[in-house]
Design brief:
Helices cover 38% and strands 22% of the residues. By secondary structure, the chain is of the alpha/beta class. It folds into three domains: 1-98 and 199-218, D-Maltodextrin-Binding Protein, domain 2 (3-Layer(aba) Sandwich), CATH 3.40.190.10; 104-184, D-Maltodextrin-Binding Protein, domain 2; 220-312, Double Stranded RNA Binding Domain, CATH 3.30.160.
């Protein structure tokens, strides 16, 4: 078939992920000709502002999706957690790869667990989801914002006086940086981002030749689990500005989904679990979101959005 152009961000992790997909596809089709086209996204360009204030949906993929729509590339490799719940018209998620360990990890000089961090210690993270759940556990902690790619964040930690830092373990694994991990955080303490640990292969929905190739990397259990998580996220209309977490798992012919919604300070949280047949994965995600919304989530969403609007007003008034 024709030479395939792959859209990817230029970060070290994104390129490792794209090269991994190339290697796996060539195991399936040795003669396949592919090349990577690096595309800078808004999330890569604006690095001095917290993610929650830069924008919301598609911060790290919108420009790549534009290149895909305009036929400048043939498919894209994304971290699934960066993909909004709504896919643009004309595009499709052709495959979901097997998931790496989805747990977050703690980077620390002395502590192996969040509960072991010093009283009133400093914890770094760029994620409102992590901030919310960490503060729900340890309201005494001071949480500082953190931006940059994985290796940049590790370097920032090493040159700082912070007591700890939270990152996705899958990214450190892919980069061969697991030596920096002090401890893996149990999911009953901090649920991961929707889709964390999996890769999304996105293509044009009418490019059947490319879809047929990418489908070879589809991992059934991961795809089902992520489908339920993304339905949960979409129902709550979540993005970078709302602390939402979700983790699905397939057990035999059923899918189990845990979902979390909390305020940024972690003072008000709702966490629930549900299960359904695998054929009803998306319905499960929507039903769990509805349940959380009715059992305190409505008030939490209102509080989070009110706080975000107040912050935006403060920023505008001082600009």
């Amino acid at each position: 078939m024709r030479k395939l152009r792959i859209g990817s961000r230029g970060s070290e992790l994104a390129l490792v992920q794209s090269r991994t997909i190339i290697a796996r596809l060539r195991e399936q089709i040795p003669t396949l000709d592919m090349e990577i086209e690096i595309i800078r996204t808004r999330g890569d360009i604006v690095t001095d502002v917290p993610l929650s204030r830069v924008g919301d949906r598609g911060l790290f993929i919108k420009e790549i999706e534009t290149a895909l729509t305009e036929c400048r590339i043939d498919f894209a490799v994304h971290s699934m957690k960066d993909v909004p719940s709504l896919i643009p018209d004309g595009l499709t998620l052709a495959a979901t790869t097997a998931r790496r360990d989805p747990r977050d990890v703690l980077i620390s000089r002395e502590s192996r667990r969040i509960e072991d961090l010093p009283e009133n210690g400093v914890l770094a993270t760029g994620s409102l989801r992590r901030r919310s759940q960490a503060l729900a556990m340890r309201p005494d902690l001071k949480v500082v914002d953190l931006r940059g790619n994985v290796t940049t964040r590790v370097r920032k930690f090493e040159s700082s006086s912070w007591d700890g830092m939270l990152l996705a373990g899958a990214g450190l694994e892919r980069l061969g940086l697991t030596g920096h991990i002090a401890g893996r955080i149990p999911t009953d303490q901090i649920l991961p981002a929707v889709g964390q640990g999996a890769l999304a292969l996105e293509s044009r929905e009418d490019d059947h030749e490319v879809i047929e190739v990418l489908r070879r990397l589809e991992h059934f259990d991961t795809a089902i689990a992520v489908r339920s998580e993304r339905a949960f996220l979409g129902r709550l209309e979540g993005g970078c500005q709302v602390p939402i977490a979700g983790l699905g798992s397939v057990l035999g012919d059923r899918v189990v989904l845990e979902g979390y919604l909390g305020t940024i300070d972690g003072q008000h949280v709702v966490r629930r679990q549900g299960e359904a047949p695998v054929a009803e994965a998306e319905q499960l995600g929507e039903a769990l979101a509805d349940r959380i919304f009715e059992e305190g989530g409505k008030e939490i969403l209102a509080e989070v959005r009110r706080a975000a609007n107040d912050k935006n007003d403060d920023t505008s008034s001082t600009a």
